[in-house]
Here is the input.
Amino acid sequence: MTIVPSDHYGGWGLTPGRTRCAKRAARYLSSRTRQREEDLVTERLLGQPIAERTNVASRARIAARPAGTPPPSLVSVHRGVDSPFRFYLRRQAKAAEAVGITFRDIALDPGAGPTDLVERVRALDRDPSVHAVLLEHPLPAPFDFYAAVAELRPEKDVDGVGPLNLGRLVAQRPIHVPAVARAAVDIAQHYRLPLAGERVVVLGRSETVGLPLALLLGGRAEGIHATVTIAHSRTRRLDRVLADARTIFSCVGQPGLLHRGNVPEGAHIVDVGLSSVPDPDRAGGVRAVGDADATALEGWAGSLTPVPGGVGPVTVADLMAGCVRAWERAVRPEGGP
Here is the structure.
């Protein structure tokens, strides 16, 4: 058979017969790829079953209190202006009522400044009838969130974002940990995602979510023992960073950050990101989305949390459970987590 010059048939130097074989092989590989995509069903990691289990446990612990013992008391401090935190307040109040926690929100007076906020938090810390305190964040300048939350003893800092609680987390002796980070870990453990001894990636480095989450996953206190890589919005060649990750926790708040071009096939995604994108078909003209392009990753990712409906319900339930633990420390010193 005559060898065809190499500039024919795509420059491969193939004979016509070999070219037909190559084409058949390409068609076969393409069909196998389509078959794999059809075979892989992306599981949805729903948060509600975990939240319900946590709430049942919280209600039981409150119901078991001795006669005459007041229920847990949670106070949420905010600026009293129209902000996204108002929606969060309503969720807090509803969740607290559902498990038997007394909830109160305190709005700062109009014109109040940073000193007023610090004094208000300091008073709540001294009040023995208050077991847990939440503080609106982030706060605009000139308010200093960390100066205010630092006034809380770690037992009352139920969101675990004060310097004492974060320091204890680094020391592997946490009292409370940031609720969003805790919720992400709860979801991963509930669905038995590959963590122990595996390489996982945390996208995001905030002091209230990304960094605490990395400490929980890689530290000894939780017994997870994952090998953690931290990346963020300025990480170059994200596809390389994610190349061999079994589980990805994304906490960036950047829609479409995760897609087929950078997520390994079969990887599991816990999507902590939350953003709003325009949607004329929805009430208000917007809808909530996460960092993962859920549509593009369907049939590619092994599993992912929906947004909404994933991390959110677990976060609120974990906050209520933290309030119960703070209450037990205060009224029943022998109690605990």
